[in-house]
Write a structure and sequence with these properties.
Layout lengths: L26 E3 L14 E12 L2 E10 L4 E8 L6 E2 L11 H4 L4 E9 L2 E9 L3 E8 L5 E3 L8 E6 L8 E7 L10 E6 L6 E7 L10 E4 L4 E3 L2 E12 L2 E11 L7 E4 L10 H4 L7 E9 L4 E8 L3 E8 H10 L3
Antiparallel strand pairs: 1-21, 2-3, 3-4, 4-5, 6-7, 7-8, 8-9, 10-11, 11-12, 12-13, 14-16, 15-16, 16-17, 17-18, 19-20, 20-21
The structure holds beta-D-mannopyranose.
């Protein structure tokens, strides 16, 4: 066992279900899946790939909601238990000093990260193609938009939850205008959350299996005494199209572009009905994780088939051992 310290505040109230009898997988699904369906917002076509954080006594979330006109936008919501959600019926309208940036065409696949004094939001932002939008909120009522982090085309911008070597740090995945048949994860730094540089390569797709076509960072990386625990998605190109699964890696704490371990097998792949059938079949897309250091429990939120939001669970020590023992 790696005996790693899990760094962060205690969150004894995160969603949790023990493995059901007979399950021996390192990551297991909630019996309540899908926990969020389109019914949660009146004119929603689908609610998926959404980000959850602890907020006050409960939880808050930023949701990817595609409406019945198929606009892709971000919605805010609150929950007492992380499972039952009240999502605003109207999309988030960010306050932005510059309309050129503020009037973005679409927003999707948000991530949320508590960093220093506020909740930062990153998302795939439509500005002459997909790029990384950045905003923040203190209360999940008023939202502020900052400069886009990068030039188009880029997706899966995921902030680290603290400065590294005195700089803000973000993972991202340069891409193209379309469905991107390639993609590596890169690391970038910023002194002010506006100007990004010091770009470093983190990892590439690998092999001919679940992570062969492209990869992208998932939830905010989790700090441990042995490195950053990164859950990430990987894509296989099958004769029926893309298949999105997820795995995990451990990244160096001071130089997160150095990969210590990385799973050869996936942790979870589309298998259940709600992952295999929906607007885009065969997608399990992780975007958030809650964890409780004292109990070593981790709850992972992921999108199912680009239609619904799902929950899975793992135990920190078992996951870390699995990553080490099954590393590439
Ligand atoms: C990616 C993004 C995700 C989506 C996935 C599968 O490019 O658009 O939002 O879940 O494709 O369709």
């Amino acid at each position: 066992m790696l005996n790693a310290k899990l760094i962060g505040s205690a969150l004894p109230n995160i969603p949790w279900e023990e493995r059901s009898g007979g399950c021996d997988e390192v990551v297991w699904r909630s019996e309540k899946n899908p926990i969020i369906t389109r019914d949660a917002v009146p004119d929603a076509n689908s609610i998926f790939n959404s980000a959850i954080v602890s907020f006050k006594e409960g939880f808050a979330g930023i949701f990817r909601c595609d409406n019945t006109a198929r606009d892709m936008q971000l919605y805010a919501g609150k929950s007492k238990d992380g499972i039952n959600w009240e999502i605003d019926s109207k999309r988030i309208q960010f306050r932005c000093e510059d309309d050129e940036i503020g009037n973005f065409v679409y927003g999707y696949d948000p991530r949320v990260c508590w960093l220093e004094d506020r909740y930062y939001i990153t998302w795939c932002n439509g500005y002459h193609g997909p790029t990384i939008g950045v905003g923040y909120t203190y209360d999940f009522k008023t939202f502020y938009q900052m400069e886009n982090a990068f030039l188009p085309y880029n997706r899966n911008g995921v902030l680290f939850p603290r400065k590294i070597n005195g700089k803000f740090a973000m993972l991202s995945r340069p891409s193209d205008m379309g469905h991107t048949p390639f993609g590596d994860i890169f690391y970038s730094e910023s002194p002010d959350m506006m100007h990004w540089g010091h770009h470093r390569h983190v990892m590439s797709p690998v092999g001919c299996g679940w992570q062969a076509t492209k990869i992208g960072a998932g939830p905010t990386p989790i700090e441990t005494s042995k490195g950053w625990l990164l859950i990430y998605h990987g894509v296989l190109t099958s004769c029926n199209g893309f298949v999105y699964s997820f795995g995990a890696a451990l990244l160096d704490i001071e130089k997160p572009w150095k990969v210590i371990y990385r799973t050869r097998p996936y942790l979870l792949n589309p298998r259940e009905y709600y992952e295999c059938v929906g607007d885009v079949p065969n997608v399990a897309f992780p975007t958030a994780a809650l964890y409780d250091p004292p109990t070593r429990r981790i709850a992972i939120y992921y999108g199912g088939a680009d239609t619904v939001t799902c929950l899975a669970f793992t135990k920190f020590d078992e996951l870390l051992d699995f990553i080490k023992e099954n590393s590439l």
